[in-house]
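I am writing to request your help with a piece of structural work I have in hand. I am sending you one protein, given as its amino acid sequence and as whole-number tokens for its backbone shapes. Kindly check, if you would, that the fold set down in the tokens agrees with what the sequence suggests. You will find the record immediately after this paragraph:
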Amino acid sequence: MILYSKSLKLYFLISLFALFTAFVIACSTEEEPAEPAAPAAPAAPKASAAASGSSSAPSAPAAPAAPKAAAAPAPAPAATVTSQQYDSKMEGTVEIDGSSTVYPISEAVAEEFNKLYPKVRVNVGVSGTGGGFKRFTVGETDISNASRPIKNPKESSIAEENGITYDELRLGTDGLSVMVNPNMDWIDCLTVGELKQIWEPGSTVTNWNQVRSDFPDQKMNLFGPDTDSGTFDYFTEEINGEAQASRADYTASADDNVLVSGISGSNGSLGYFGYAYYVENVEKLKLLGVDNGDGCVKPSKETIPSGEYTPLSRPLFIYVNKSAYQTRPEVKVFVDYYMSVGPELTNEVGYVTSSADVYNNNRALLMKSPAPAATVTSQQYDSKMEGTVEIDGSSTVYPISEAVAEEFNKLYPKVRVNVGVSGTGGGFKRFTVGETDISNASRPIKNPKESSIAEENGITYDELRLGTDGLSVMVNPNMDWIDCLTVGELKQIWEPGSTVTNWNQVRSDFPDQKMNLFGPDTDSGTFDYFTEEINGEAQASRADYTASADDNVLVSGISGSNGSLGYFGYAYYVENVEKLKLLGVDNGDGCVKPSKETIPSGEYTPLSRPLFIYVNKSAYQTRPEVKVFVDYYMSVGPELTNEVGYVTSSADVYNNNRALLMK
């Protein structure tokens, strides 16, 4: 998915969509100041790309193969910069610098972001937390990566003097890790006291047998971050009792890969840096446990968030320049995207991502309003969370929900997400009696019968807009004599009681060829929309055509039948472009074909239509697996909607979706 590149070589890899929400709009970011001459950025750890599937709902027809990826809501606070569609032509530069520990996350986000916005240059430097703050507080960068808060009074005062205001956004938690050469089989743990004995200012420890008498007579070679590093600040404060208090006779570097090479290539070595770099270099290093008085504990995805690994668990942040976020579209869109894919990428890199509540608070901070409390308490991304999320409905929206489910299952393999495809109407039939948690829909739930059934069953819901589809009219690719039909001609063919069975009945210069018609069944939102827009009344249509709830059946029919004509969602045309011929539609202003440009611009009319999911309020508010899934959907939905082939809604629409969920 988000669709996170399977070859990601960043400090991590989504690039999915936990969870939650955030995206694309316009404007602003912040950065950590960095020293004027920042060292070259280290090579990012490679990210893994797991695959996982979801099964279809038991009572729904077999789900079609998804195209490859590839009540009014409370208004979301307005941004200074006007939000916009995902515009791949957007240009600009986002400057980031700071912590080598946070670098892998920001670099991974930047790589995924550039797939959507190839003309936006995102520069990610690595001069250490302190070096990043030096640049950030004088306005040289938009975002500062940090492995400690900006608590230094000097840093804060410099920022104030230069009129730099910022937002502190928490990303996750790192377990600062202590490593030795893998050949040192005689050591597995050090106490906090022993670490202090080795690293405190003025230490004369140069041999391992000075630490413990049963350690061998072996020279000690020390490796660690430089003095501008947040890792250095945190380690010295927690181990030596004062930030920046350390012996100086060790090999120091702002590049953690240099430290990896030093430790792995030197007998008697000892060093420390972020957990993600250990995970990336597990075969080259030996991880030690740390004993803080309660026994020896090694950092892991379990011990870091649980608080067992102490005192070396520490928070990770980005700092965002408020002015840049509010006035520059490329910065705003990047930061919103960061808040969308950050949870998954933080996990992928090897750190422990912050909870959904933390990310909601981040977004609220960016939007200058407190985040409403959710009924279900959000939690850390817990891969052990269990449960089932039931989804059914539109075949048009199916590819998006299926793509989200697949990415979600990489984070939550024990949560079963069933995505069925019984059509918009069929989905609403199940949703309004409480059989499903989410209903995919290619039309609003405007049918009075549907609304009244929901009310009778105590089902309340939120309507969340995902994007826009251009309902597409296709013929067999061998039909080189046709490129366009008017709305009137489409009505002539499809209206109730139509006797058109041959193409020369539509136009006299069309050949004498039998017409074979293919279209969605009567439970489909696509059917409702097409018949209302073309024939003037929803559900009003001739019945003598091949109908199916599975768009892949329609693709096969049209591509395998001479004289064929059919219609369905644009994404299925994109997925099958070599098997079909796309027609333009003339609504009186000339022939227009659906495309990523004509659908959102309003040129392709009258067959552009909105796409939704409907979410059961009670399920969202009381069942963690549903809440986390929907929040994740709002996070990765924009990118996946685009990848599938539709036109994603603006960031403002997704912000309104989130505001509605939090009411």
The radius of gyration is 28 Å.
